[in-house]
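Reviewer 2 asked us to include a model.

Predict the structure of this chain.
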Amino acid sequence: MRKSQFPWILAIFGVTAFVVGGIPVLVIAIVFVAVIYLLSLRVHPRIRHGRCGGTGEHRGAVFTWTHRRCGRCNGGRLIRWGAGRWGSEPIRNEYRRTAEARATARRNGTWR
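Predicted model (structure tokens):
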């Protein structure tokens, strides 16, 4: 996780909950954040791929108008790690199929 992506609002929320009400309020805050996270996995199961910026293509270094398909993602969007485990059934199945296909391609030496 990059420093800019650290969820400061969650850290401040947790510290404030602990200072205001101690351990019981902190536990309630953690449960609240966990429920919100699980709902977020259902509503927004995908993220942009970091290397290609969600475009699904890599630009050429010399001829910048040219591009090739991104070899590490499927069209620029990836299923979030949590959605692959706790998301809806179709998302979990797609996550599993994609991981198996990627592992098979790497074993066969055809993943790039």
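The mean pLDDT is 85. The longest strand covers residues 46-48. We have added this to the supplementary material.
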